[in-house]
Amino acid sequence: MFSHIRTVVVTSFILLSIPTLAASIAHQNMVNQAVERFTQTNKQHWSYQVHSVEVEEGEKTELQAQHTPHVDAGKRWQLLQLNGKKPSNKQADEFARKRQNEGFSVSIKELIKTDALTLDRETPEYISFTYPVELSDLGDDALGKLVGRIQIDKHNLNIDHISVHNTEEFSPVALADIDHFKLHMQFMTIDNTVLPKYNTMEMSGTFSFFIEIEETSKTTFSNYQKHLIATDER
After folding, report:
1. Cβ burial, residue 14 (10 Å; 0-12/13-18/19+)
2. Of 40, 69, 169, 195, which sits most exposed with the smallest number of CB within 10 A?
3. Mind listing the pLDDT tens digit for each residue in 203-233?
4. What is the C-alpha separation between 218 and 158, in angstroms, rounded?
5. Given CA atoms 138, 158, 202, 63 in this order, what sign does their dihedral have?
6. The whole model's pTM is what?
7. Which domain of life is it from (predicted)?
8. Alpha-carbon distance values, 99 to 68, 78, 83, 102, 131 (Å)
């Protein structure tokens, strides 16, 4: 019902005790640099596999797929398994056609407001910041009700993870009330390139006052292979 919201697409540390402070210009520059490193990743150079599990209103969909971005559009996506079974030719063709222009597109810059960062926590290895989140896909009512958190690897200046959660109930569309929303995006580094590792999403609430909304999803990226091929962005 609310699959468009899903696209807006626990590591324990010994924490240093620090007060909550507005981030300095140096901290803003650190986060901007980390974000820029991810956004400049050339998606055409990386093939990978995706394992996705989605549960929407009690119905589970699980798939395994291969993405090869530097080949012809109709061959970029190959559906390997659907709900634990080999897909039919029709299912595989439909999947490839619908996904042919999709990749690991994550709108990081929309998720992060570097001019509103607040220093959250710091360890010798990591530093994290919180900030207000404004996502157009979640509607005007979500303004002021979402908080984001970004954690940076201090040694490599890479994004470790980004998370978003709600602090109050909000209404993304008419007659829908979301009382729980949580998004987590974990990253990893391969050959000095920052790549998605997995994304998770949880959302619950009500629609038309009595219909329960309950959605969860997890998408895991694996088997990255780098292709040193000079191609234009497609």
Report:
1. exposed
2. 40
3. 999 988 788 889 999 999 999 999 876 544 4
4. 22
5. positive
6. 0.82
7. Bacteria
8. 12, 9, 18, 5, 32
